[in-house]
Design brief:
- The structure is a single chain.
- The longest helix has 21 residues, at 196-216.
- α1 packs across α6 (196-216).
- The protein starts with 12 loop residues before the first strand and ends with a helix.
- Helices cover 32% and strands 27% of the residues.
- It has a single domain (13-216), classed as 3-Layer(aba) Sandwich (Rossmann fold), CATH 3.40.50.
- Strands 5-9-8-6-10 form a five-stranded mixed beta barrel.
- The chain has 218 residues and is an alpha/beta fold.
């Protein structure tokens, strides 16, 4: 839980995640976030005293585009943060490490598949990396190597490109930060099942650092 006084520079802040496992990290720190709205596979939380918002859109981004756009225009955030876990296409990007995404590409989105450049609008203490958004989890080395050769991306997820496309098209600033949860190969299930507690601690450390920079030191 953060007890410090918040700076207003990056407020309202909208945090967008995919999974309840990811949103739980923010909910445990930003007590008391409360559910304000929910759909079949998404939930929207809001802090009762501060303009801090958390949107959990489901794996692969299952919240409809129209609802995400409407929420952005209703909140009108000064900053959108997409945070979550990802797989490593490049094995030098190590498990448990957190990276600031500089470019995100897609093999999902038909509305323009050119890589999106993400401006370094907020200095963050995480090394840079590039990200590929795909429609299905990458769980074989053959698929991993194919994506790596085709795109040169370091990391892989299932949501960031769509979030970036919608957010930037609406002219809101965005930063994307990802923590490596697995190596996007046959060992993925083992990493996610047997190292979950260690991963959560890595995520908590990264999110505490992020929120301190965005909400306290800004």
């Amino acid at each position: 839980m953060m007890n410090q006084s918040f700076s207003t520079k990056n407020l309202p802040l909208l945090v967008v995640v995919a999974l309840s496992f990811e949103s739980a990290v923010f909910r445990n720190i930003l007590i008391p976030l409360k559910v304000r709205r929910k759909g079949p596979r998404w939930r929207y939380f809001q802090h009762p005293e501060r303009p801090v918002h958390l949107l959990e859109i489901g794996i692969g981004g299952q919240m409809p585009d129209t609802q995400l756009k409407a929420l952005l225009h209703r909140i009108r955030p000064r900053l959108v943060l997409n945070y979550g876990i990802c797989g490593a296409l490049d094995d030098t990007h190590l498990w448990g490490r957190t990276y600031r995404i500089t470019h995100v590409a897609s093999i999902v989105d038909s509305e323009g598949s050119r890589p999106i450049s993400l401006p370094d609008s907020v200095p963050l203490p995480f090394p840079p990396a590039t990200l590929l958004t795909v429609p299905q989890p990458v769980t074989t080395r053959e698929t991993k190597n194919r994506h790596r050769r085709a795109t040169g991306a370091h990391l892989v997820d299932m949501e960031a490109f769509r979030i970036a496309r919608i957010t930037l098209a609406a002219d809101f600033p965005l930063i994307v930060v990802k923590t490596v949860s697995d190596y996007a190969d046959e060992t993925t299930a083992d990493y996610l099942e047997n190292r979950r507690d260690h991963l959560r601690r890595s995520m908590e450390a990264a999110v505490n650092k992020l929120l301190t920079i965005l909400l306290v030191q800004a």
